[in-house]
Amino acid sequence: MKLLFATTNQGKVEEAVQLLSECSVELLLLNDFPKLHSVVAEESGKTFKANAFIKAKAYGDVAQILTLAEDAGLVVSALNGRPGVHSARFGVSVDSRNQKLLKMLAGKKDRFAKFVSVLCLYDPVTEKAQYFTGEVKGKIANEIRGNLGFGYDPLFIPDGFDETFGELGNEVKNKISHRKQAMEKFKILVLS
Ligand code: IMP
Fold this sequence. Notes:
This protein is of the alpha/beta class. It has one domain (2-191): Maf protein, CATH 3.90.950.10. 33% of the residues lie in helices and 24% in strands. The chain has six helices and six strands, in the order βαβαβαβββααα. The protein has a six-stranded mixed beta sheet with strand order 2-1-3-4-5-6. β4 (112-123) and β5 (128-140) form a beta hairpin. The model has no long low-confidence stretch (mean pLDDT 96). Bound molecules: inosinic acid. Inosinic acid (IMP) binds at residues 9, 43, 70-74, 87-88, 115, 149-153, 177, 179.
């Protein structure tokens, strides 16, 4: 089966390639379709699900191939769920987003957070969409730790560990992450 994994996020690409490595699926990326360079998928939805659909449909309709897109983010309890769907736009750079989060949580006892991933599998022929959700619970560290992974990884300590995803690296992250949980559901329902 040929499948377009539609994301501009290199960190997600690396994880998806690893997570789907032993599956009978030929994973194609945005760069495999020159006509996708001009596609703009505006993430105007209020939910991860809505944004995952916007991305899958925008790219899938142009590429005319079965398309998997993901919307993900960090949901922080003490911030009433923020940054949530705005995780990628919480600041102008990865570092400013992480620093902003630390500042907003300064002095707070409640460090509970979770990463959420919603995958949307979109078929441009039938225009039908299927969704697969995963999450990993944990807490926000008191400082940035580690330089592995991407985004908020150096701040997120998954339950059962003392290190952040930024310290643990992809081998551990890909066993327990939100993306792994969502991909497993996708694999069981679609690929088996
Ligand atoms: P999206 O590309 O709109 O789904 O944006 C997701 C944003 O959430 C990313 O830019 C990261 O800031 C954050 N994010 C999502 N998943 C992860 C992850 O696995 N690790 C770290 N940050 C993540």
